[in-house]
Amino acid sequence: MEIKDLKIGDKVSVEVGSQQFKDTDDEKWVYETIFGTAEVTKVNETYEYANVIFGNGTYG
What we know:
Blueprint: E1 11-22, E2 29-43, E3 50-54
Antiparallel strand pairs: 1-2, 2-3
């Protein structure tokens, strides 16, 4: 989804971090992206960015 397609109030999936762990079967490191759900609160007029708020009240 592109920023220009977002509307205020839309729910979006946002990358909030990553984690790494060692696979016990083959001893290789696995990197996994962590996503969170947020609500769009503002979309820039030139579609450069969108402000979002997460369920716990933090802004992104």
